[in-house]
């Protein structure tokens, strides 16, 4: 128990010989503009106190992609040899050198050990500093900004760190991160707290409906008009009875107030799988989450009813479904709150949650969940599907990188993580595009990719359709009814090695004819989606009636169901779950195992968007799943 202080002292001693005055200051982070809703108010008082927090760099984090490839690439000798949670934590904890370097620098600038404190999780160093001290330390100037709601926020335009310190710090708060938490609780589209509002109606990616259905069509020849489970089984060859359900697991994530209604599940299954009538998912409550019934209707029940009705049906009654219900009705939840619950190491990874973006439990404002934050209380299932998404531009590069690294950690532990790619083509949620200065506009022309779809460590799922007048025995097209499959190129993340060959082929043979200032034309950025599945004309029981539903919200749980059955086949013969699938599905060994989509596009931002073409494309990825081919290929792997 005494080793840590001794180790830090040793590190400080070793670093004391370095002359910090010879280390020039460099800009560490800079903000380009003041976000919508905020305006400059005044220079901050020099005597005021601010809580400076330094997020320490994680050990080996730059190599996390390489570690993930080792256990995920079919040609690797370590394929399928997934890590334990303990191995993940030990590999990525901050180093003693980083802790010592930052503490030493702070002490040289007047913050001795009585003021600079290392948090118990080793992720942060905290200092209470006056504005004058902070400005001198970071070579910046602090201002107070006002929000249209009356909230105030302290921020600077940029800040600097010594060159020898920069590599040990991810970021400092409060500085350029303009994501202050607005105390007013509403489902408005104010720019603060974007992350934790994800479950609210109209926030993020959500399914769309064209209204109630008067007559159910249950024959295969009608799948261009109404999609039911039999259509999906025919499209993707999913005729399979689980053999290892006791070893397998499939999780669906929902964010309160989104909730399923058991009568809706029963209504659906009574028509399409009678042995599931009365069956409920196994719900794991995260931070007070529950299947609320105070608010009903499509906006509150559409997503969860859709996800569970189809996931439960496609994996059959033999395979239980886990429902992760995150957040209470008051505070809500973000993706990070969910990640906290399934992996306790994430609660302390790079300092833990960002209180300006993620819900904080117990609820600091009262009236909400009063228990402790759920941290490492729920085991991750083998496959996890989430039908929600942000715009990449909603969140800072650090925030997205931090979360993306956690998905890589889940992949290391053998978890397959799926996210829907968005429903507005090359535009962002709500059809908003970007302007040249980075702000949102319905008249913007700059493409607006989604997140986590752009994270290279998840599998992003786009949407297809049975073309009007076609049958399930004919090729599908990209979804162009009500929604358009989200897709494009990241503005934050580099192209991973596993997709380089596929994306290079696309850019060489089908280069988009758009100006390079409206899309990331570098040829070096992450392309998405990775795969696709049907997303049009789903028959869903919602609030006591059948409705037609559209969206990549349909596509992700369907893809997850197919992959869960692949896991079942592998587990039944004593093999590991498939884990992070991208290096495998992009490999030459898996060429041709997805149904290639070559019709349609994903318009948005005043353009026709991208076009579905032979091979990978930023509309439908590699294509839709072909279960017989996929399971045959994966059974050949160790």
Give the secondary structure arrangement, pairings included.
Layout: H1 3-15, E1 25-30, E2 38-43, E3 49-56, H2 64-72, H3 85-92, H4 96-108, E4 117-118, E5 124-130, H5 131-138, E6 143-147, E7 152-155, E8 158-162, H6 163-166, E9 169-173, E10 208-212, H7 229-236, E11 250-255, H8 262-272, E12 282-286, H9 298-314, E13 322-326, H10 335-342, E14 383-386, E15 390-391, H11 397-412, E16 416-420, E17 433-434, E18 440-441, E19 450-451, E20 459-465, E21 477-478, E22 488-494, H12 500-509, E23 525-528, E24 531-534, E25 538-542, E26 545-550, H13 552-572, H14 582-585, E27 594-595, E28 624-625, H15 627-636
Parallel strand pairs: 11-13, 11-14, 12-13, 14-16, 16-20, 20-24
Antiparallel strand pairs: 1-8, 2-6, 3-5, 3-9, 4-5, 6-7, 10-26, 15-19, 17-18, 20-21, 22-23, 25-26, 27-28
Helix pairs in contact: 1-4, 2-11, 8-9, 9-13, 13-15
Entry keywords:
eight-stranded mixed sheet; alpha+beta; 15 helices; 638 residues
Q: Structural class, from helix and strand content?
A: alpha+beta
The coarse silhouette is globular
**Distance between the amino and carboxyl termini:** 42 Å
- Regions with little confidence, pLDDT below 50 for 5+ residues: 1-20, 179-198, 350-374
Mean of all residue-level pLDDT scores: 86
Radius of gyration: 25 Å
Q: Care to count the β-strands?
A: 28
Count of individual helical segments: 15
Largest sheet: 8 strands, mixed
Binned, the helix content reads: 25-40%
Q: DSSP strand (E) fraction?
A: 15-25%
């Amino acid at each position: 128990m005494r080793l840590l202080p001794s180790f830090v002292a040793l590190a400080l001693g070793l670093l004391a010989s370095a002359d910090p005055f010879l280390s020039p200051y460099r800009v560490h982070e800079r903000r380009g503009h003041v976000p919508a809703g905020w305006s400059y108010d005044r220079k901050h008082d020099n005597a005021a106190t601010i809580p400076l927090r330094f997020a320490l760099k994680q050990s080996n984090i730059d190599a996390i992609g390489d570690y993930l490839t080792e256990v995920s690439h079919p040609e690797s000798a370590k394929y399928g040899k997934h890590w334990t949670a303990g191995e993940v934590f030990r590999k990525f904890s901050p180093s003693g050198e980083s802790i010592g370097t930052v503490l030493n620098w702070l002490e040289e600038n007047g913050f001795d050990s009585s003021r600079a404190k290392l948090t118990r999780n080793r992720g942060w160093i905290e200092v209470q500093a006056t504005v004058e001290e902070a400005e001198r330390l970071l070579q910046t100037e602090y201002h107070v900004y006002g929000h249209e709601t009356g909230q105030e926020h302290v921020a600077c335009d940029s800040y600097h760190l010594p060159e020898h310190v920069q590599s040990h710090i991810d970021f400092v708060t409060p500085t350029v991160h303009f994501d202050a938490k607005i105390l007013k609780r509403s489902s408005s589209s104010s720019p603060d707290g974007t992350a934790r509002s994800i479950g609210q109606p109209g926030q993020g990616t959500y399914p769309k409906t064209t209204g109630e259905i008067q007559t159910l069509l249950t024959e295969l020849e009608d799948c261009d008009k109404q999609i039911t489970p039999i259509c999906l089984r025919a499209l993707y060859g999913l005729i399979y009875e689980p053999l290892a359900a006791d070893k397998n697991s499939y999780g669906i994530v929902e964010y309160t107030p989104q909730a399923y209604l058991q009568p809706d599940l029963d209504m659906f299954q009574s028509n399409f799988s009678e042995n599931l009538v009365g069956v409920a998912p196994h719900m794991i409550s995260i931070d007070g989450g529950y299947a609320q019934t105070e608010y009903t209707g499509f906006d509150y029940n559409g997503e969860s009813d859709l996800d569970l009705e189809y996931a439960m049906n496609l994996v059959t009654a033999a395979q239980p479904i886990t429902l992760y219900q995150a957040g209470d009705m008051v505070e809500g939840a973000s993706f990070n709150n969910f990640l906290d619950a399934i992996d306790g190491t994430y609660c302390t990874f790079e300092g833990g949650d960002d209180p300006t973006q993620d819900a904080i439990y117990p609820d600091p404002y009262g009236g909400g969940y009063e228990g402790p934050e759920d941290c490492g209380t729920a085991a991750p299932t083998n496959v996890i599907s989430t039908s929600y998404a942000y715009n990449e531009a909603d969140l800072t590069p650090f925030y997205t990188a931090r979360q993306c690294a956690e998905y890589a950690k889940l992949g290391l532990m053998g978890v397959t993580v799926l996210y829907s790619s968005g429903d507005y083509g090359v535009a962002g949620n709500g059809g908003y595009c970007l302007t040249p200065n980075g702000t949102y506009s319905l008249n913007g022309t700059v493409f607006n990719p989604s997140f986590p779809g752009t994270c290279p460590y998840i599998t992003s799922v786009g949407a297809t359709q049975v073309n009007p007048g076609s049958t399930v025995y004919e090729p599908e097209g990209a979804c162009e009814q009500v929604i358009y499959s989200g897709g494009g190129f990241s503005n934050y993340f580099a192209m991973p090695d596993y997709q380089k060959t596929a994306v290079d082929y696309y850019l060489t043979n089908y280069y988009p004819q758009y100006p390079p200032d409206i899309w990331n034309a570098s040829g070096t950025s992450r392309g998405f989606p990775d795969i696709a599945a049907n997303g049009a004309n789903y028959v869903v029981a919602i609030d006591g009636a059948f409705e037609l539903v559209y969206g990549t919200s349909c596509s992700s749980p369907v893809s997850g169901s197919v992959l869960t059955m692949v896991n079942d086949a592998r587990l039944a013969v004593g093999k590991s779950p498939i884990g992070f699938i991208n290096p495998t599905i992009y490999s030459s060994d898996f060429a041709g195992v997805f149904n290639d989509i070559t019709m349609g596009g994903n318009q948005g931002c005043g353009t026709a968007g991208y076009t579905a073409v032979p091979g990978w494309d930023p509309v439908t990825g590699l294509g839709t799943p072909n279960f017989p081919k996929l399971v045959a290929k994966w059974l050949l792997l160790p």
